[in-house]
């Protein structure tokens, strides 16, 4: 699966990335010892947290990032007491709300073959005509470039 002939050969590069990712942070911490926030960057933790995120489209990462930055910078600086009391509750509510709505939509709509409106955002092809083309070298398919 992870060999050259498998479907995930590029995943092997992440062993090297995981090995080298902490080095720039360590170098920056050595170069700028007065900036204590650099020492707080934990690349193994960042990489491990990213691996726990489900495989979704890039808009999900952007929205998670915006919500996280908003609550952990803006709300934390302006409303510390509210942040201390309610942030973890809000996080649990958002997570459980998504799970609850997924179950509710499944049982109320999809079990009756109702899948909602048809619009471009529901398509899974990313609107790229080359997305269905083979990328292995030497395979010839009509309408696709040869790699």
TrEMBL record:
<feature type="transmembrane region" description="Helical">
    <location>
        <begin position="12"/>
        <end position="29"/>
    </location>
</feature>
<keyword id="KW-0571">Peptide transport</keyword>
<keyword id="KW-0472">Membrane</keyword>
<protein>
    <submittedName>
        <fullName>Oligopeptide transporter OPT family</fullName>
    </submittedName>
</protein>
<dbReference type="Pfam" id="PF03169">
    <property type="entry name" value="OPT"/>
</dbReference>
<dbReference type="GO" id="GO:0035673">
    <property type="term" value="F:oligopeptide transmembrane transporter activity"/>
</dbReference>
<comment type="similarity">
    <text>Belongs to the oligopeptide OPT transporter (TC 2.A.67.1) family.</text>
</comment>
<keyword id="KW-1133">Transmembrane helix</keyword>
<feature type="transmembrane region" description="Helical">
    <location>
        <begin position="88"/>
        <end position="109"/>
    </location>
</feature>
<keyword id="KW-0653">Protein transport</keyword>
<keyword id="KW-0813">Transport</keyword>
<dbReference type="GO" id="GO:0016020">
    <property type="term" value="C:membrane"/>
</dbReference>
<dbReference type="GO" id="GO:0015031">
    <property type="term" value="P:protein transport"/>
</dbReference>
<keyword id="KW-0812">Transmembrane</keyword>
<feature type="transmembrane region" description="Helical">
    <location>
        <begin position="59"/>
        <end position="76"/>
    </location>
</feature>
<dbReference type="InterPro" id="IPR004648">
    <property type="entry name" value="Oligpept_transpt"/>
</dbReference>
<dbReference type="InterPro" id="IPR004813">
    <property type="entry name" value="OPT"/>
</dbReference>
């Amino acid at each position: 699966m992870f060999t050259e002939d498998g479907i995930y050969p590029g995943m092997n590069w992440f062993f090297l990335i995981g090995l080298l990712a902490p080095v720039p942070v360590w170098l920056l911490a050595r170069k700028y010892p007065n900036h204590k926030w650099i020492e707080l960057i934990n690349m193994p933790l960042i990489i491990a947290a990213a691996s726990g995120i489900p495989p979704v489209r890039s808009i999900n990462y952007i929205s998670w990032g915006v919500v996280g930055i908003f609550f952990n910078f803006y709300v934390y600086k302006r409303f510390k007491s509210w942040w201390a009391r309610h942030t973890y509750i809000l996080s649990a509510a958002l997570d459980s709300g998504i799970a609850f709505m997924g179950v509710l939509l499944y049982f109320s709509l999809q079990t009756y073959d109702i899948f909602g409106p048809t619009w471009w955002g529901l398509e899974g092809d990313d609107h790229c005509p080359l997305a269905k083309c083979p990328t292995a070298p030497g395979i010839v398919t009509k309408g696709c470039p040869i790699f």
